[in-house]
């Protein structure tokens, strides 16, 4: 059922700054573009309150010039860059600007609590940007960049506006990035089309802002901190929730892995025990359980007899004795063979000597002396020229006979040794069958020993597997019991989330103040019968608009209108210093094509009323548009810059880029 329209919705009043506040705490007084440090191409003065940057469409310009391509979005991006945003253009746009204006620069006079800061950024090569206190842009350019100058104004703005929340930001946002994120909210990308309350930066714009990659939760936290809708207790609970959620996620992954291992282990033990999937861990009336079956399997394995290996020691001892006997006989045979060869050689030598002497003394008519080998006849005729004594032929014959006897004796001994060697060789040959038999016996014993070892190992493996299966069954039973218990983190998470709900309830007071401003803006802006609401819960921040009797209505135009109203409500709170925000806001072409022109005109009128009904407006609202603002706001006081896509001189850079 659709909610009824709130007939007592508060009328929106102009925001009232605290006493003594004579202007915005932060506002941009001037933006200038230079062709070079001495030549200015565009100089735009801005003021507190409403500032309109207008490119008339064809219905208002009276020409065929398109209302697009004049530089409205670039104007906003140059402002954002002077306020600290890293990228002022896409890479392609920057390359064109560097080519056309290699010595160009742009600068802004930014007032913070009455102090003028000048931010200067180069259009050409990067690296020359600086921020300095100065009375004017020209003074800052004349002074020039010096060592120690800040490159960005972020630190000044953070210390001026966000010292309270800088230490409470989410982990994804450092102290130095606080203004970078809040700036993205207060100066939304035109490419985001005001699609969502947290849609601030598009990747297309290549701004290099932290907000471009920040998650929704972190951005919502930054919005709540800025709106004072997030206290320390809730932040602590949120941090604890993140820890517990991470722990539970890790536990879930671990549990999933363990469940998989558990299922695999259970399947393996059932397979090992040869039972079906119906058999559980414990015994039942009908059948034994896995634990009992595993215990029985282990007992059966341990009762198995181990085969006794053969006594290979005695075989090896007999082989050793046989080898020693073989070696002894072989050595004896070798000795006898050597003796035989030696004695036959000696006998041959004696016979040779005896035969030589015998020839010498038995040659008849050619007898020679056995000593000097000279013919006897010649000795007798001439005398012996060598020997002094006459030859003793009988003694020589006796010596020959002695040598012949020794040769015969040696031949006899050699024959005896030869016979003994043959006998021993026969003994060696007789050892061969015994040796082969022992080798066969050893081979059989080795095979039997290996078989016994294999059988023993099989028994041991069976015992090991049975013991392992029993251990696995007992471990699986314990894991099954543990899996049924509730993790401690689950209970703790429930407690923490209860604290978060209380935190949401406490923050509801701050959100209610914002909602009142939002409802007042919607009531002043839209036809009667429209009710707005802002909801903050565990699902995020939701901005709604409902028509009486029709419920929530969503169109592209209405959705963008809701985001604009939300931003204006935050601006309202910032002026009254009920939010940790500078009262500064830029909307780049906030009108969707199907938004009624009269409704769009009320946006300008509403902000104009806020500025005119107070002595000094304490905010700055900059809006670009192609639709004509109300006629009473088309003067120079509110329209700070009028541009056109043609001719080129009327574009932002006064040239083709």
TrEMBL record:
Domain DUF2326: 560-628
Keyword Ligase among UniProt keywords: no
Keywords in alphabetical order: Coiled coil
Listed InterPro entries: DUF2326
Keyword flag Phosphoprotein: no
Coiled-coil region(s): 222-250, 319-353, 400-455
Region annotated Disordered, chain positions: 1-21
Pfam family, one: DUF2326
Protein name: DUF2326 domain-containing protein
